[in-house]
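[Solved] Which block belongs to which protein?

Original post:
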Amino acid sequence: MSKLAGSLSALFAGYAEFWLGVSQPVPAFTVEVNGPDLELTVDGVQRPVRGRLSAYAVLAHRFWAAVLPAPVVIPSLIRGGNEGRDWEQFDDEHARAALREAAAGLEAAGERTEAALVHRLLAGTDGDWGVPPWTSAAEYTGHHQVPGSLLAEVQRRSPVVERIAGRKSWNAAGTVKALQAGVGVSDPFDRLALAHLSAHAIGEWMWSEGLKHDEALRFLLALTTDPDAAGMVALGGAEDMALALVRQRAYAEAIPWLTACIDGDVRVAELAAARYECRLAVGDPDADDDWPLVERTVHAPDAKRNRSEAVAGGPSWNDVRFAGGLGARRAAALARAAEATALRAAGEDLWLVEQVRRYGSDTARKGVERLLKKRAYTPGDDEAAALRARARDLCEQALRTAGPDAADTAPTTAEGGKDRERFFRANALFGAVGRAREALGDHDAALAAYTTARDVALAAGITGDWWAGDVQRVGNAPG
């Protein structure tokens, strides 16, 4: 086995263990350098595996997708924030040494740019806000060593970085504007810098301000198809943006971000479930096409999901993990889409309702007057009636899908006396159904849903009367 093949074998073994939770020998393969591409011929696999070393997560995924039984997906590509800690750990424990050796093989084969991309990514050349962690050492001896032969290429500051590093103040709008000035760069190093800093900005601000900057950041979607490091990093940024927009209930805007990730085999089951919810909410008649994709991919090997589910307290309904299984997730999607549809029938915007719910009316509306005007919508009488009928149908579908066990109020027997998973399911399902019914003027049905959410929460051992205000408000409503 060549040195290049040996280093790749170590990388693939680490990826399978850390990201997929799979422990099995890496099958024998040969590798050829074909320009910047690597072409792997794997024993027992008919088609060669192709990819770039700088997009090493995508390359490892393609390798195991060719070897393991389907489905195989990339559990996540988010490299920043709390989500990105997994990638930091993987790089340190499984990837850095193997990638350094493989990059040396590429450099020896004359592919200096691709080798330098690997080092720029691992060394963090582009920094978080355009401030590289190192600038002049002949041989950097900190967290990542760069060969002297590539030092100039790895250290070169991109003009994308310069535009951000020279700014005197930091805010989302100014940063996004500076990033937009880099759109259209063709140099691979600059494209990586643009992808990296855009993904960092998304992780820093877009979980609260995503919709304000959605259109301005759409250039990142084009980068997701780059074959090298820029494409891999851009996919991680798209994943983060998709999750942010879904959480903010900006359903229409989330769909293209979700689609880019699904097309890139990233976190497919969770993101397809989120897209199913989004498509239901915007009235897409083909929304049901997404659910078979969820069912086909939900059992793909995913060590990240396993680690998340092992955390005390379980998963949160603010993200897209599957608390309570597929039936519970589908029921929640139907209920949340019903809420969006009922509000739309009344000429209201669920995104703004969520912002007001979180931040208060004045804060939620500050700085988004133009966006609110653009999103303003008043349905005609016939359309409003059709939307109300659809919202009621979605509520009924949600409750049927959840089944009678969703309203179980038997006291919990969970260890520690708290069944948070049951609480999350009740909040997601009955909370959304209650809000939908209330928007439709169906006060008795809304009161029943809120009361059920409250009773399940109490039975689950959750401290506090979470739904008391909603039960009192609807119970006291006239008519």
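(Second protein starts here: sequence line, then its structure tokens.)
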Amino acid sequence: MLESAFAKTTITPQPAQGHELAGYIARREKSQGIHDDIELRALLIEDKSAVLLVNLDFSGVDTHIKETIQRAVARANYHRCNYYA
């Protein structure tokens, strides 16, 4: 039987001030506050195998973020997963 689940959470860093911003080549100052929260969305589709799609409001994913997601997947007992970043 095909099953699916969806989750969404806010991952905006706190405090929101003082972070370097990606994608603003002409802008040199750091963040000054929050315009929109940063979110993580996940969609799990399962049948005989599982597919997990993770969407982040980032322009890039570093090793730390990728490994954090991999650990969460392993804790949920999804050991046979392929990762694409």
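Accepted answer:
You had them paired correctly. Confirming on the second one: Residues 25 and 56 are 21 Å apart (CA to CA).
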